[in-house]
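STRUCTURE:
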């Protein structure tokens, strides 16, 4: 992989477009990237990472904070990287998600992330625009993941330098960061969690077996025991108890059966004696009763049965006769009210019907006359209402055109206001925002003055600290002197009178603190200046929008136009409604005129017809109100005559039926054997009383027959014999209780045996099922201990430590060759996987073999320059191992960050020779450093300059 060109805009500290031409920088195969702290050197590497993978390494990985805060809000954040991978040259353009100003209105909107890949050479395929597709294509071509890429492209010798100086725990953390072995930590945790879950399941199963054991003991009535053979002994004891209880139950049951037989015999004898005594008492009472009078009374009552209902029918017939007399009197009164004085009822009724029939022809005309009179009244009222409606329509039609014209003028004014509204809105917004902008300007100016004062004070403090440090530099240099070592200033190995520390002196740390305070105050001052400038721009924009117009006038003019524009829809509806109303009124007036002419014409013709018909009807009505009234009177009179005649005939018929029924009752009494009707009525008994008399006689007969049958059946039984049931009953109860108790004991023994047998079977099955679980858990427990560095793990290494040790060993082998060459054959790495002291974890020990002494010693004993060579060798070894493992593209562009300041001139020459070997074959190596000597050795440089408005790039090609 070779980088060609990097372009970034509004990214990190770079507010404006910046370009890095790697082809020009890498013409000699080596270039230097330098600049002030915080200027943005690492951001260039972050930009490469973001273009390829859409993310940046380390704590800077929050993509939402990649946008430059100094950039113009209208400029989008974008990174473009042109590179060649496996003979394919392509360009990736990527933008993160960021907030941009809305195109319409105020505020911001979120611009979504986007990415594109364009092929330039070596491939004829179409470009890619989906983020996921670009990510897959990049990873496929590079042949390595995001983490592996950063282990190779940016050599982590700084992390390895920490590694060489750290203890075992710190080394483990550093190697995890370098090698990315977090997944093995997950494996260790997975085994521990699985063991916990399996242990929990096993414990639950063990608890279940223990509960079954306690239930067996509870069912057997014994104390639980975990001894072998206890369960079989319990079952054996319960079986013996069942046999003993069975024998006792059979013996007591035989005794109880004999006692029950004797009790049954005694009860039969006592019952027979009781029955004989009761039968004799019953027969005595039956023979003493007056049964003859009962039979005589029942016979007379039965003969009187047909007489009573016939006598009751007489009362009903008499009542019907009384009703008929009353109806006759009412019919006579009704006829008298109609003024009738004759006596020939039927003849007079026929005559009145004939006369009413003659008036029937005029009845229809009378009804028509009444309807026409009502119609004349309705026509008169309708004509009046129509005339009033016509007057109202004429009045409304006179004023409606004026209202229509006024509404049209209001509608035109509202439309004109709506058209002007958009032009007035900008001035209204400016006038409304102007007071707030003025307040903001005053506040930002005040904050700027305060920030300037604070910064000036911090700057003065920094200058004072620097001045004091320069004055006391001799003390600071004296503190660094060592006995026998040359002085950095004069070169003398003897130091007869070094400067002594002074109370209140300052050192490099004090200067750094003062510089940090001055930088913080400067950042605050810059921020305040930008805020004040932005507030002035807002004020200026408001006045430009207002022009020469006063803010109050702009506000009032816009509000008046807005109020008038809001009435446009209402005025439009009113205008349409008035137009519709005018057309409707004109149509209604035409219809009302037609209706009025029709009503007047109909009223005139109907009045003539009513007058002519009235003359004919007056002649026919006679003394009555009208013809219909006279006809109705005649019909009612004829009906009343017929009604009176029918009522008189009904009265006569009712009287005849009463006399006939009286004769029938007298005949029935004689036939029943009674001397008269009164005697028959006296012998009568109600049905309930007669039924009671029958029951009494039937009960007397049954009691006599039952007593006689019992005495005949038990003729040999002596009622004077005495039988004692209490003693026999007590003996039988005692025997039965003993038998019941023995049966209960047997049932309990059998139930206990059955229950314990069922629980024992379940307990044995549970023990059997626990055996594979116990074995599986023991295997998992041992394996988990081994994976987590305990138990049978003699090296006390966890799986993660083992993997880290294996990876470290691979890297150490690859790094030893480079360290041996860079140290001129003196040093090589020695890796050991043995356990540490006092049983601590091993596998992460990395020492150096000193060829001068022939012995190994800890890497932390190396000098600063030697440590840098060792860490650089490890970083290069890691890059070689990762590249070989992934089989990915050969990285033709590498970066080495910091550490060169600890090297002397000779060692620096060796490192530079090593870097020359790295760039052999066309590789490009970029060094990130502050060392001044490197600037003299490397003519091709890329400098990052820091300023208040953001960082910029400056290229020096020698």
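SEQUENCE:
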């Amino acid at each position: 992989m070779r980088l060609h060109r990097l372009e970034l805009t509004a990214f990190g500290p770079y507010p404006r477009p910046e370009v890095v031409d790697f082809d020009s920088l890498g013409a000699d195969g080596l270039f230097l990237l330098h600049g002030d702290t915080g200027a943005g050197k690492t951001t260039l590497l972050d930009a490469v990472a973001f273009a390829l993978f859409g993310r940046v390494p380390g704590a800077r990985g929050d993509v939402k904070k990649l946008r430059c805060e100094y950039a113009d809000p209208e400029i989008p954040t974008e990174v473009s990287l042109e590179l060649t991978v496996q003979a394919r040259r392509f360009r990736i353009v990527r933008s993160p998600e960021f907030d941009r100003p809305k195109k319409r209105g105020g505020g911001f909107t979120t611009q979504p992330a986007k990415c594109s890949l364009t092929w330039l050479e070596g491939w004829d395929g179409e470009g890619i625009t989906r983020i996921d597709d670009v990510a897959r294509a990049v990873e496929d071509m590079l042949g390595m993941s995001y983490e592996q890429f950063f282990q190779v492209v940016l050599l982590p010798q700084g992390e390895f330098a920490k590694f060489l100086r750290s203890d075992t725990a710190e080394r483990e953390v550093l190697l995890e960061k370098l090698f990315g072995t977090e997944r093995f930590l997950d494996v260790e945790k997975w085994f521990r969690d699985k063991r916990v879950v399996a242990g929990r399941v096993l414990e639950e199963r063990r608890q279940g077996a223990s509960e079954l054991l306690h239930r067996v003991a509870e069912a057997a009535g014994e104390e639980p025991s975990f001894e072998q053979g206890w369960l079989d002994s319990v079952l054996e004891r319960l079986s013996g108890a069942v046999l003993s209880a069975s024998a006792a139950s059979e013996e007591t049951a035989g005794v109880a059966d004999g006692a029950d037989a004797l009790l049954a015999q005694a009860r039969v004898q006592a019952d027979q004696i009781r029955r004989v005594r009761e039968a004799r008492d019953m027969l005595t009472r039956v023979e003493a009763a007056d049964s003859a009078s009962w039979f005589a009374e029942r016979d007379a009552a039965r003969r009187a049965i047909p007489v009573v209902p016939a006598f009751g029918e007489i009362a009903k017939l008499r009542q019907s006769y009384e009703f008929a007399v009353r109806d006759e009197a009412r019919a006579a009164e009704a006829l008298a009210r109609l003024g009738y004085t004759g006596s020939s009822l039927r003849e007079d009724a026929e005559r009145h019907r004939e006369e009413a029939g003659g008036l029937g022809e005029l009845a229809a005309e009378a009804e028509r006359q009444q309807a026409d009179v009502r119609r004349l009244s309705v026509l008169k009222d309708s004509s009046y209402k129509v005339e009033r409606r016509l007057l109202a329509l004429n009045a409304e039609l006179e004023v409606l055109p004026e209202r229509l014209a006024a509404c049209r003028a209001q509608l035109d004014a509202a439309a004109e206001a709506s058209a002007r509204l958009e032009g007035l809105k900008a001035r209204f917004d400016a006038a409304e925002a102007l007071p707030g902008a003025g307040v903001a300007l005053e506040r930002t100016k005040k904050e700027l003055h305060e920030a300037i004062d604070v910064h000036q004070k911090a700057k003065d403090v920094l200058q004072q600290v620097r001045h004091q440090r320069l004055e006391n530099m001799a003390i600071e240099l004296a503190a660094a002197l060592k006995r026998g070592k040359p002085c950095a200033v004069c070169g003398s190995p003897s130091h007869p009178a070094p400067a002594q520390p002074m109370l209140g002196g300052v050192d490099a740390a004090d200067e750094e603190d003062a510089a940090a305070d001055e930088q913080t105050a400067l950042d605050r001052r810059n921020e305040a200046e930008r805020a004040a400038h932005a507030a002035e721009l807002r004020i200026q924009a408001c006045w430009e929008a207002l022009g020469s117009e006063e803010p109050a006038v702009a506000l009032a003019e816009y509000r008046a136009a807005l109020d008038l524009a809001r009435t446009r829809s209402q005025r439009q509806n009113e205008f349409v409604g008035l137009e519709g109303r005018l057309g409707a009124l004109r149509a209604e007036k035409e219809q009302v005129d037609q209706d009025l002419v029709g009503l007047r014409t109909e009223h005139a013709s109907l009045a003539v017809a009513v007058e002519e018909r009235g003359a004919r009807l007056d002649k026919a009505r006679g003394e009555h109100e009208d013809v219909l009234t006279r006809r109705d009177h005649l019909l009612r009179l004829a009906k009343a005559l017929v009604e009176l005649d029918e009522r008189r005939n009904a009265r006569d018929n009712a009287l005849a039926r009463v006399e006939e029924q009286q004769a029938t009752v007298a005949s029935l009494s004689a036939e029943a054997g009674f001397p008269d009707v009164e005697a028959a009525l006296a012998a009568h008994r109600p049905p309930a009383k007669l039924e009671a008399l029958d029951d009494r006689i039937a009960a007397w007969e049954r009691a006599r027959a039952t007593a006689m049958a019992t005495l005949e059946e038990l003729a040999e039984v002596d009622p004077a014999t005495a039988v004692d049931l209490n003693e026999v009953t007590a003996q039988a109860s005692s025997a039965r209780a003993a038998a019941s108790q023995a049966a209960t004991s047997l049932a309990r023994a059998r139930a206990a045996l059955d229950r314990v047998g069922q629980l024992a079977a379940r307990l044995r099955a549970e023990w059997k099922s626990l055996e594979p679980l116990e074995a599986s858990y023991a295997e998992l427990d041992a394996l988990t201990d081994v994976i987590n560095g305990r138990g049978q793990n003699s090296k006390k290494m966890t799986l993660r430590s083992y993997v880290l040790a294996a990876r470290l060993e691979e890297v150490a082998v690859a790094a030893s060759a480079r360290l041996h060459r860079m140290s001129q054959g003196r040093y090589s790495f020695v890796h050991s996987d043995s356990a540490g002291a006092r049983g601590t974890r091993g596998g992460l020990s990395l020492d150096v073999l000193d060829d001068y002494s022939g012995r190994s010693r800890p890497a932390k004993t190396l000098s600063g320059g030697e440590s840098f060579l060792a860490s650089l060798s490890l970083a290069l070894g890691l890059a070689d191992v990762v590249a070989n493992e992934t089989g990915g593209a050969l990285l033709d562009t590498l970066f080495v960050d910091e550490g060169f300041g600890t090297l002397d001139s000779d060692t620096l020459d060796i490192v530079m020779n090593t870097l020359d070997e790295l760039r052999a074959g066309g590789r490009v190596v970029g060094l990130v450093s502050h060392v001044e000597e490197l600037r003299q050795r490397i003519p091709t440089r890329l400098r990052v300059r820091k300023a208040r408005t953001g960082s910029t790039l400056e290229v020096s090609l020698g």
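REMARK: The two ends are 26 Å apart (CA to CA).
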